[in-house]
Design brief:
The protein is of the alpha/beta class. It contains 38 helices and 39 strands. It has a 9-stranded mixed β-sheet, with helices on both faces. Strands 30-29-28-27-26-37-38-39 form an 8-stranded mixed β-sheet, sandwiched between helices. The protein has a 6-stranded parallel β-sheet with strand order 14-13-12-15-16-17, with helices on both faces.
Length: 1019
């Protein structure tokens, strides 16, 4: 048969065309198919590397020159500075390389030759640079090439990674000679979408119509639990929020492709149910969930493997001592190995480096070989991906070898063969490390890896004393920055080092099992499974989804009648585990003991809806009461919700509240995001706040903001590793009186306040740093009523100009926590207070004497106004910061303020110590997570506003002030009426006169509309 592989990267034969795990998957399958006598055509971009490849390979140019147009339809919300319609005029040429029986076709044009050093567009290009559309251009050029050059005979078109070929299944669905297969290689969010007008235009370009309406449901009601879940999950890597003018990629592929292929059994399980993950509840509300069940026969588990070349090598032939000494490591130590593309967050590399630092700082004897490839294609030098990572390696010479380069198989095999353990802490089930982990295990390395569906077949999640166990497991993680995963990594690394030292027989058993398990995963077996399915497609043989898997998934309503007789015992067992009383009752008698088993199983899984159904069916009011009593809430005099939650299997309990969470820059600098290809999700104004374990199974806490929506939405992490949601009615049992609101001003009379003072970040600005139209209208209405608006921010004047411009703000602004007075209209700094350098150094000395080493930052005085920091400030430097390892350079220029960061203590504690030791000489505040600011004595937002108010002719009694953090306390105390937004710090909420909605719910606008009237009311 003819198999046409369609892949954005294919560098298994040359790592200049490699960026990640997709390359070996594509190339090894191509070689296996060709070795069995099939015709294999591999279509891929040239990436501007034809000249480089020609020097080492017999690349020939084909008589294929195609002049064509690619229309781009740009979403104006994403591309505000670009025309909505752009047409690319392209001339695409084709080149061929025949290698190992495979015809590799390279497509080359002005777009496909961009980015030879990285292949993929950087994430920051969307909305700013048309290079973002390189993968889309590849789909269009590739579809033309397949039709014009490779068409004319029956073939299977096999695309790798849906985002890079989603057009092909609908384009070829009407062609009887072509069958399409889509391989899901990495677990991208199932809600990943693309701009619908763009898809419609390109389908029209090829004369194809598709029913895109059938792929989408309406958005959930704004106040529904599903909407709240979506808002929280949008701050993770499991879900992405889009508007109604987008279409989901996976449903588009699933609706038109003949097969949807997965690379492990657990990955197919994951995409079919998302069981035990935070996304499971939301998934069941989406059209794709119904499509997966209806088209389960299209789900193929093709798998993946280890190359024949790797398996043919002998790990015992590697000179371990020589290799490790060449890396600067001590061969007598246990060696821990990690090799992957640099992708900090979903690969768990941030937590891994933190664990390495803690383990080595504590004196544990171990060595680490860490490969975090930042280079891609072109053979360019590899940049340092992360300053903090580099600093950890530099501080531990002889213990850490950190390499940022892509490596060939010889190098990787040598280093893997020297490893005693391999560490792969995947998060969000986004990356299974299927090849890298298997390769290391095949050399005998004992895995320390996440207990997740995608890699369950490796056996590392089995109990260590199980005869089949291969290693040690880590808990699943669904956070970008997860201290629990770091702690687990520290524990497992120490446990592993002790295992190798004190229990060599147990270590040898795990190592032998790891080697035997991994060596079963060959590309030959993977290719045979796919070829059998491809042959069935071409011959018209229907596929059936395995009944046992449908039972395991709980798809009982999809089972034929015959299955209920043949699999009665299996169905009853699965229904009991899932607490499905209806399915159990059809398969087995429902007596009192059965009801109890079902209830306890559902309760252990925290499936309280099932618990309620079972309690009703069994007539057990005591069970219903047990479920109802799982939580209580009350509101205190300051308006803060106090929550108590009870569940015996809970290990973590978190409540969704309105808030901003961490910004992208909290975790990743701009340069690091480009190196890792994965920006931090922006979120949608909702965050999770952990409750504190008061005793076994009981968790308590005070929420810093109102619950999201009309419900109390709780995320539970259970002892089993399952993560699920609990939706509760928010009905506090005792509510203290809250401060009364300020009434409306009389219609047509003087405004209730003459001055409106607003903080920026977290208050006036939404989480995405935008200013809503509603807020702009409310400010305009206040101005019409005769009130002045005064911006009050902790940012220095140089750092807030863009936000003032977005507001159309041209008046005075109080900046730098009150130290600066800035005329926005004239772009002129009127006054600025500096911090004495000797005093700043003295503050550092005193606080470090009490708390230990600090990381430091300073904001230099105007006109320079730079932020200079020490390397581990906030543990990750940010774009635009000046980083120095020499503290003396911090004091080389006058400074406006000093910023303290302690890597192990919360900012509240650092602030309290600095205040106690130095509060008589300086002002100490904190307004940003992880930062405590030290300013000249007397510098507060209140002092700055008082100066500005005098210039504007206003007084405190006539001022309404808005804020969100403790640095706003003096401002709200000074003002006649102080308002804390709903996402504010508890300390500010406790002293405010009023609690407004959160910043993402336009809290400032809501209060101003009440005080000054809304535009609608006045019209």
């Amino acid at each position: 048969m003819h198999v046409i592989h369609f892949a954005f990267e294919c560098g298994g034969f040359d790592n200049r065309l490699m960026r990640g795990g997709l390359s070996p998957l594509v190339w090894n399958l191509s070689r296996e198919y060709a070795a069995r006598g099939h015709r294999v055509s591999l279509v891929t971009p040239a990436h501007g590397l034809i000249g480089t490849l020609r020097r080492e390979h017999a690349v020939t140019e084909l008589p294929y020159v195609h002049e064509h147009r690619v229309p781009l339809v740009l979403d104006p919300k994403v591309w505000p500075d670009h025309p909505s319609d752009i047409t690319l005029e392209l001339t695409t040429r084709a080149y061929r390389l025949r290698i190992d029986g495979v015809d590799v076709y390279f497509l080359s044009d002005a777009f496909l030759d961009l980015l030879p050093d990285r292949l993929y567009p950087p994430p920051g290009t969307e909305g700013t640079d048309l290079v973002h559309f390189k993968p889309l251009v590849f789909q269009v050029a590739g579809a033309h090439f397949i039709r014009r050059y490779l068409g004319g005979e029956e073939a299977v078109v096999h695309g790798f990674e849906p985002y890079y070929h989603y057009l092909l299944p609908p384009l070829f669905a009407g062609d009887p000679s072509l069958r399409t297969v889509s391989t899901v290689a990495a677990n991208a969010p199932v809600t990943q979408k693309v701009y619908r007008p763009q898809v419609e235009r390109l389908l029209g370009l090829f004369g194809v119509r598709a029913d895109l309406d059938a792929l989408e449901d309406g958005l959930p009601a704004e106040d529904s639990p599903q909407a709240a879940m979506a808002r929280v999950l949008a701050g993770t890597r499991m879900h992405v929020e889009y508007g109604p003018d987008h279409v989901a990629v996976l449903p588009l592929v699933l609706a038109h492709a003949d097969l949807l292929d997965f690379v492990s059994p657990g990955q197919r399980d994951y995409y079919s149910t998302f069981r035990d993950t935070p996304f499971e509840s939301l998934f069941h509300t989406l059209p794709v969930s119904r499509m997966v069940r209806a088209q389960a026969h299209q789900l193929l588990m093709g798998g993946c493997g280890i190359s024949d070349g790797w398996l043919a090598r002998d790990p015992g032939a590697v000179d371990r001592e020589a290799v490790l000494r060449s890396l600067g490591l001590d061969p007598s130590l246990p060696v821990f190995y990690h090799a992957a593309r640099y992708a900090v967050h979903h690969k768990g590399q941030l937590e891994l480096i933190r664990a390495v630092e803690e383990v080595l700082d504590s004196g544990t004897e171990a060595a680490f070989v860490l490969r975090l490839a930042t280079s891609g294609g072109g053979g360019q030098p590899a940049p340092v991906g992360n300053a903090y990572f580099r600093s950890v390696a530099d501080r531990h010479p002889g213990r850490v070898h950190l390499d940022w380069r892509l490596a060939d198989e010889d190098t990787l095999f040598e280093q893997a063969a020297c490893a005693d353990f391999c560490v792969f802490p995947s998060k969000f089930e986004l990356d299974g490390f299927l090849i890298a982990q298997a390769e290391a295990m095949a050399c005998g390395a004992v895995p320390i890896a996440t207990a997740q569906s995608v890699t369950a077949h490796f056996g590392h999640a089995l109990p260590p004393d199980d005869p089949r166990a291969t290693g040690l497991s880590l808990p699943g993680s669904f956070r970008d920055d997860d201290p629990a995963l770091t702690r687990a990594l520290v524990d497992r690394i120490r446990q592993a080092a002790e295992l190798r030292r004190a229990a060599p027989d147990a270590y040898a058993r795990l190592s032998a099992n790891a080697r035997a398990t991994a060596r079963r995963f060959t590309w030959a077996r993977s290719a045979d499974r796919r070829l059998s399915a491809f042959e069935g497609l071409l011959r018209g043989r229907p596929r059936a989804f395995p009944t046992e898997d449908a039972i395991r998934y709980g798809w009982f309503d999809a089972l034929p009648d015959a299955a209920w007789d043949r699999y009665r015992t299996l169905i009853a067992r699965s229904a009991a585990a899932l607490g499905d009383v209806a399915a159990y009752g059809r398969a087995a008698p429902l007596d009192e003991a059965a009801y109890e088993r079902l209830f306890e199983a559902a309760h252990a899984r925290a499936d309280f809806a099932a618990c309620a159904r079972i309690a009703r069916a069994a007539g057990r009011e005591d069970w219903a009461a047990r479920v109802r009593g799982r939580y209580t809430a009350r509101i205190d005099a300051a308006g803060r919700p106090h929550v108590t939650y009870r569940h015996p299997e809970a290990r973590h309990v978190e409540v969704a509240v309105a808030g901003t969470g961490m910004s992208a820059s909290d975790l990743e600098s701009h340069a690091e995001a480009l190196a890792s290809d994965e920006p931090v999700p922006a979120g949608s104004g909702a965050v999770l706040v952990p409750l504190v374990a008061a005793r076994d199974g009981v968790f308590e806490g005070v929420l810093p903001g109102p619950p999201v929506g009309r419900h109390l939405l709780v995320m539970l992490t259970l002892a089993s590793g399952r993560v699920t949601w609990d939706t509760l009615a928010f009905e506090p049992s005792d509510t203290a009186a809250r401060p009364s609101a300020v009434p409306y001003g009389p219609a047509g009379g003087p405004p209730p306040f003459r001055l409106v003072a607003t903080d920026l970040d977290g208050t006036l600005l939404r989480s995405d740093q935008s200013v809503s139209e509603r807020t702009l209208r409310a400010l305009a209405r206040a101005a019409e009523a005769g009130a002045s608006h005064l911006v009050v921010t902790g940012r220095p004047a140089t750092a807030c100009k863009q936000y003032l411009t977005a507001l159309g703000y041209r008046g005075l602004a109080v900046c730098g926590q009150g130290a600066q007075l800035y005329d926005a209209g004239a772009d002129r700094l009127l006054s600025s207070a500096s911090l004495d350098l000797d005093l700043a150094r003295s503050v550092v000395e005193r606080v470090e004497a009490a708390l230990g080493p600090l990381e430091l930052g300073v904001v230099t005085a105007p006109p320079e106004s730079r932020f200079k920091v020490t390397p581990r400030f906030g543990e990750r430097v940010r774009h635009g910061w000046d980083v120095t390892t020499d503290r003396r350079l911090l004091w080389s220029h006058p400074i406006d303020k000093l910023v303290l960061h302690h890597p192990g203590l919360p900012e509240d504690e650092v602030e309290a110590v600095a205040q106690r030791l130095c509060g008589d000489e300086v002002t100490v505040v904190h307004s940003v997570r992880g930062m405590v600011e030290v300013l000249p004595a007397g510098t507060t937002k209140a002092a700055g506003v008082e100066r500005a108010a005098r210039l504007l002719g206003h007084e405190a009694a006539g001022t309404v002030a808005f804020g969100d953090m403790p640095n706003d306390i003096p401002l709200l105390a000074w003002a006649g009426h102080g308002v804390a937004v709903g996402n504010a710090h508890p300390a500010l909420r406790a002293m405010a006169d009023e609690i407004a909605p959160a910043n993402d719910d336009d809290g400032v606008a809501a209060v101003l509309e009440r005080l000054f009237g809304s535009s609608e009311r006045m019209s």
